[in-house]
From TrEMBL:
Protein name: 4-vinyl reductase 4VR domain-containing protein
Lineage, highest ranks first: Bacteria, Candidatus Moduliflexota, Candidatus Moduliflexia, Candidatus Moduliflexales, Candidatus Moduliflexaceae
Source taxon at top rank: Bacteria
Annotated PANTHER family: ARSR FAMILY TRANSCRIPTIONAL REGULATOR, DNA-DIRECTED RNA POLYMERASE SUBUNIT I
Ranges where the 4-vinyl reductase 4VR domain occurs: 111-173
SMART domains assigned to the protein according to its UniProt record, in alphabetical order: V4R (SM00989)
Length: 175
């Protein structure tokens, strides 16, 4: 499944398996600590092997692919942007990824300020003066580009780890 080298993604939603069959007693949920243990140890190894910039590119790319896959397999195509955002908010909350809020939106220019409260990646971490949600930046790009057919530049501008209590993202069309 993952042993061959390739340039294009070969990920398929079916690779996630049948959770109900495979985890009849433990189910779909797990402790956030386990997710963060995997994420931060993987990030640590990547930084040691390829450096911070490349690790960030990898995490952004993984988030982008995850966003595209979530859009394709979980979200439904909505013509109305408000309906799309409502469904996205519901899905992110149901999956316990975070609580999405649109602080500002200019639909003509496709610019947005989005916040995610109770973010899976960082809410509750110690303040370290960094924005660490690179995966989330890619995730948002993947979802929005799948919905609009346009690419975006998504940049985290506030983070729990930089002392804020939500993660805030500036979203603009890619140049």
């Amino acid at each position: 499944m993952f042993k061959e080298e390739r340039s294009a993604s070969m990920f398929d939603w079916s690779m996630l398996g049948d959770i109900s069959e495979g985890r009849p007693n433990l189910g779909h949920t797990m402790n956030v600590v386990v997710y963060r243990l995997m994420q931060f140890t993987l990030r640590d190894v990547l930084i040691r092997k390829v450096g911070v910039e490349e690790a960030d590119r990898i995490f952004y790319g993984a988030g982008e692919e995850a966003g595209r896959q979530l859009y394709k397999n979980v979200l439904t195509k909505k013509a109305n942007f408000d309906e799309f955002i409502n469904e996205l908010q519901q899905v992110l909350k149901e999956l316990q990824i975070g609580i999405l809020r649109v602080e500002a939106a200019n639909l003509e220019e496709l610019t947005f300020t989005l916040t995610v409260a109770e973010d899976l990646d960082c809410s509750g971490l110690p303040v370290c003066e960094e924005q660490i949600c690179t995966y989330d930046e890619g995730f948002i790009q993947g979802i929005l580009s799948s919905h609009t057919g346009r690419n975006f530049r998504v940049k985290e501008i506030d983070c729990w780890c930089s002392g804020d209590r939500v993660c805030r993202f500036d979203v603009r069309p890619a140049q």
